[in-house]
Specification:
Blueprint lengths: L1 E7 L6 E4 L11 E6 L2 E14 L11 E4 L2 H27 L5 E7 L5 E7 L7 H11 L2 E6 L2 H8 L10 H4 L9 H6 L6 H4 L14 H10 L6 E4 L2 E9 L4 E6 L7 E5 L4 E4 L1 H13 L76
Parallel strand pairs: 7-8
Antiparallel strand pairs: 1-2, 1-4, 3-4, 3-5, 6-7, 9-10, 9-13, 10-11, 11-12
C-alpha cells in the first residue's frame, strides 16, 4: 500500500495521486505540487489515504507545500489572464484563416507556459500561429487539439435531463459507450434521443448497463413460447423494471393478454416450438411430442345426458294467445244473383260478360 493524496487542478479535470511526504494534507485544502510541467496549484479532493501499489503511476510526484495566500492570489490572476489569452488566440487564428475553434486557455502556475485547446474537423498547420502567439506573450506556447467530448467537458453545460454534464461534473475520464447498451435498456434508437450535447452517445448509458444485463438474463425474449400457470402461450412484451411479461395464451378461447412475473414462466422454446405444439394439439398427440398437459385445462361446454333430459319448451298457439284488441268485423260477402236451381244454387256471383267483337 502507498500513502497518497488526491489532487485536482481543474474543477472539471482528472484526479491525480501525489506523495504527501511528511505533510498532513486535509481534504479541501489548496496545495502546490510538482508536475512534469513545473509547479502547479491544485485542490486536495481526498486527504492522506492509502491505495494499492498497482494504482500508482511511478514516479510519484511530491507535494511541495500547502498553498499560501500569495499562491491563491497568483492562481486567481492566472484565471483572469486565461480569458484574455483565449480571445487573442482566436483573433490571430481568424487572421491566418485557420479552421480552428478555440475552446480554452490555461496558464501554468509560474506563468512560463500557456496551453490552448481547440477542435477542428481535420489536421491544421498552426506553426505560423504559434510564432505569432510567442511574439505576443513571450512565453512557451502549446496548442492541443481535442475531440468533441473533451470540448463538452471543458465548456460545460446542461444535458437533456436538466443537470450539468456528467463529464464536467464528476467523471474523471470517458468510458466506452455503444449502441448495444441502448438496445439492452429498451431505449429508442433515435440518435437525437440517446446522444448528448457533444453529438456522441450519452455517458449515462453506461451507468445501468450491468443492472439491465442482469434483468435481461432473467427475462424471456419476445415471441418466446412459455408455460404459465394458466396454460401455454406466447410472450408479446416484457417490462424489465417491473419483472413482468405479457403472454397471449394458446389454450382455450380466451385471447386476451395476461401478465405474469418472470419466475412464473417456464420457457419452452421459440416460434418453431410453438408451431410444433399447435400441430401436435391438432393431431391429438401432445404427450408424444413431449408436451405436458397444461395446469389449467381448457373449458368445454356442458353436455346434456339421458339421465337429465332437456326441458320441453311450451309454445303458445295463435288461438291460445290472448288478444288485447277487440276482434275486427269480417268483410261483407258479395250479394248472390238469383236463387233458383238453374246454376245459382251454389251461391256463385254473377260473372262479368265481355262483348264479343263483331256482334
Amino acid at each position: 500500500m502507498t500513502n497518497v493524496v488526491s489532487v485536482r487542478f481543474n474543477p472539471r479535470g482528472k484526479i491525480y495521486y501525489f506523495d504527501p511526504r511528511s505533510v498532513d494534507v486535509p481534504t479541501g485544502a489548496s496545495v502546490v505540487v510538482e508536475t512534469s510541467k513545473g509547479l502547479e496549484f491544485g485542490e486536495c479532493v481526498y486527504g492522506n489515504h492509502e491505495v494499492a501499489d498497482t494504482a500508482v503511476v511511478q514516479p510519484l510526484r511530491p507535494v511541495i507545500r500547502l498553498a499560501t495566500r500569495e499562491d491563491a492570489e497568483r492562481a486567481e490572476s492566472n484565471t483572469r489572464r486565461n480569458a484574455e489569452a483565449l480571445e487573442i488566440c482566436r483573433v490571430k487564428a481568424e487572421e491566418r484563416g485557420l479552421d480552428m475553434k478555440m475552446i480554452s486557455a490555461e496558464h501554468s502556475f509560474d506563468g512560463s507556459q500557456i496551453v490552448f485547446f481547440f477542435t477542428s474537423d481535420g489536421r491544421v498547420d498552426f506553426r505560423e500561429l504559434v510564432r505569432d502567439l510567442i511574439a505576443e506573450f513571450r512565453v512557451r506556447i502549446k496548442l492541443m487539439q481535442v475531440g468533441v467530448r473533451d470540448e463538452a467537458k471543458l465548456l460545460g453545460g446542461l444535458g437533456i435531463c436538466g443537470k450539468q454534464f456528467c463529464c464536467s461534473q464528476f467523471l474523471n475520464g470517458f468510458h466506452s459507450v455503444s449502441i448495444k447498451m441502448a438496445k439492452t435498456q429498451g431505449l429508442s434508437l433515435n440518435p437525437v434521443k440517446i446522444s448528448g450535447a457533444c453529438g456522441r452517445l450519452m455517458c449515462c448509458l453506461k451507468y445501468e448497463e450491468e443492472a439491465y444485463a442482469d434483468l435481461v438474463a432473467k427475462a424471456p425474449r419476445a415471441d418466446a413460447f412459455v408455460e404459465t400457470p394458466e396454460g401455454k402461450g406466447t410472450v408479446t412484451g416484457v417490462n424489465l423494471l417491473r419483472g413482468t411479461a405479457k403472454v397471449r395464451l394458446e389454450d382455450g378461447s380466451d385471447t386476451t393478454l395476461k401478465t405474469f412475473a418472470f419466475d412464473q414462466l417456464d420457457v419452452l422454446g421459440g416460434k418453431a416450438r410453438r408451431a410444433e405444439y399447435q400441430s401436435a394439439r391438432a393431431e391429438g398427440r401432445l404427450e408424444e411430442a413431449g408436451f405436458k398437459p397444461s395446469a389449467a385445462a381448457p373449458r368445454t361446454p356442458a353436455r346434456i345426458t339421458d339421465s337429465a333430459p332437456a326441458p320441453r319448451i311450451r309454445r303458445e298457439t295463435p288461438a291460445a294467445r290472448p288478444s288485447a284488441e277487440p276482434p275486427k268485423p269480417s268483410a261483407p260477402r258479395p250479394e248472390k244473383v238469383g236463387g233458383g236451381d238453374d246454376g245459382d244454387a251454389k251461391g256463385k256471383t254473377k260473372p262479368n260478360r265481355r262483348k264479343r267483337r263483331g256482334t
